Structure formats: structure tokens, C-alpha cells
């Protein structure tokens, strides 16, 4: 028999933990993209020179 997790007890803080982890993950992706772009510009500048 399937269990409905929306009514199961003990899952009160799961959403808070999920939002906290997801915001850290998206911040890591953002900074990774920025750092990669900066390194890419440096490489392109060095290749052109």
C-alpha cells in the first residue's frame, strides 16, 4: 500500500532544509559560472595576444 508522504508525520523541517540546500547549490552554480567566464576571457585574451 502506498504511503502519502504529504500527511506523514516527522517531515516538518524537510522543506526548510531543501530550500537551504537548494539556495547553496544555486549560489555555487552562479559563482562557478562567473569564475568559468573570467577564466575563459583570460584564455581568449592570451590566445589572441
UniProtKB/TrEMBL annotation:
Organism per entry: Sphingomonas piscis
This protein's UniProt keywords: Membrane, Transmembrane, Transmembrane helix
Protein name stated in the entry: Aa3-type cytochrome c oxidase subunit IV
Keyword presence, Transmembrane: yes
SUPFAM superfamilies, sorted: Bacterial aa3 type cytochrome c oxidase subunit IV (SSF81469)
Residues annotated as transmembrane: 28-48
Pfam family, one: COX4_pro_2
The keyword Transmembrane helix belongs to this UniProt entry's keyword annotation: yes
Signal peptide span: none
Domain Cytochrome c oxidase subunit IV bacterial aa3 type intervals: 9-47
Amino acid at each position: 500500500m502506498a504511503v502519502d508522504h504529504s500527511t506523514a508525520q516527522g517531515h516538518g523541517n524537510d522543506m526548510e532544509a531543501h530550500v537551504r540546500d537548494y539556495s547553496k547549490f544555486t549560489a555555487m552554480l552562479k559563482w562557478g559560472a562567473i569564475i568559468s567566464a573570467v577564466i575563459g576571457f583570460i584564455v581568449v585574451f592570451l590566445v589572441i595576444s
